[in-house]
Amino acid sequence: MTHKINHIAIVVPNLNEALGFWRDALALDLERTEENPGENVNIAFMEVGGTHIELLEPTDSNSGIGKYMEKRGPGLHHICLEVDDIEATMQRLRDHHIELINEAPKTRSEDGVRYAFVHPRSTFGVLVELYELPH
Amino acid sequence: MTHKINHIAIVVPNLNEALGFWRDALALDLERTEENPGENVNIAFMEVGGTHIELLEPTDSNSGIGKYMEKRGPGLHHICLEVDDIEATMQRLRDHHIELINEAPKTRSEDGVRYAFVHPRSTFGVLVELYELPH
Question: What value of ipTM does the predicted structure carry?
């Protein structure tokens, strides 16, 4: 069961300039910013109607997000769907011949969120992330 | 005041094949499909947690969406934010030097929704639509 859109991730060249649109002009609530040296990104989290908008600023052009921005330019990057049971959802996707990037869910150490990505080859170009929140 | 994400629009080469992922594999609820010959698209509407996912299949490669797909490929196309007062939001954006595609809101005849697009030049590549629902 897929019950909400957890977040929409957007690649931006510069977090402060992008906040000039999302936070200042559009007046969305900035929840927090975070440095993630492991993934080579700085992130700003905003919230609108229960869904988060995540702005991702690559800090290294050789990282995954950095290479994405070099190739595709900034813009919409992925959407993340919250599911009740990530393993059941992944099995269902496999049964429908959908290719997964992660064969098993990963677990984020800070908050226990389990996540996996679906390959855009199977979704006509949309990178889809699945989240299972801790129960 | 921006209070929710109304929809996320995704360009797909073929509606039925894309529904194989979104409806069949992911088990999202298909609300309806619609032919829109004016915009040269067929559309499938799904719902997840109060936000709609709209799949847009261009029916003419010379239309706006058709040209987009030729140039950028299929994938995430735009996000639409619901606002209370679209004219106030547009004025606020102008005050922050944000470029709008539509200088005044348009009104959709079927349901009275007022809408306008923000230019992706001002948002680092994200096409943002604003919706004001009828009060």
Answer: 0.94
